[in-house]
Specification:
The chain is mainly beta. The chain is built from one helix and 16 strands. Keywords: Signal.
Length: about 250
Amino acid sequence: MLTSIRGLTAAAFLSSVVLTAAPALAQDETDPPSAVEVSGNVAITSDYRFRGVSLSGGDPAIQGGIDVVHESGFYVGTWGSSIDDGGTDLLGDLELDLYGGWSGQVAEGLTLDVGLLYYMYPTEDLGADTDYFEPYASLAFALGPAEATVGAAYAFDQDALGDSDNLYLYTDLGVGIPNTPISLNAHLGYTDGVLAPPLLAGTTDDSGLDWALGASATVLGGLELGVTYVGVEGPSIDGFTDDTVVATLSMSF
């Protein structure tokens, strides 16, 4: 899903909001393959960074999600993370993302992913309107031995965004080291709008870059350890927009 998509999210990282593929369950040779696959993921991370900005106050976060994918390419899922809004109770202590979309090959070596993501903060207790929608789209393709992704996410004018909008453009690059369980990845993102890191850090600049360089390794079955250096443009605020190294231990099943 997007690293993160939020974790895109991200991830994405996405970011993010990222869809994680799980190994298919072993089946009897006489059974037809299932038209629907269900996968899940859990993780603990040293800092929940959303597009370079910490949503956990620079502290560790617990995360997890479930994806349901149909053989047609349509999917739905949910992903959540503990957060820390600095005691303001504006967002509470939980982010819950709901999403759905379609992913599939549209040309030789070119995969399209389009969908809609809904960010929810169910534990906020000030009665503020904090939930919002964000449509997204990305293209993934081979770039030599690496896999590249370019994408965009656009949160249109909504009450939760102060009747403003936000555009996020990004590119990801990943490559596996041959004969090892190690993969290297890089990310560059650009925000134009109300969620720009410099604006969130207190300036009047509503645009800015975020970037990340990392490595991950499968250490045991579906258990994966990742280490990523994350940075953003704008003022460096400790535990919020300062450059940092994020360590994550995750399991897919």
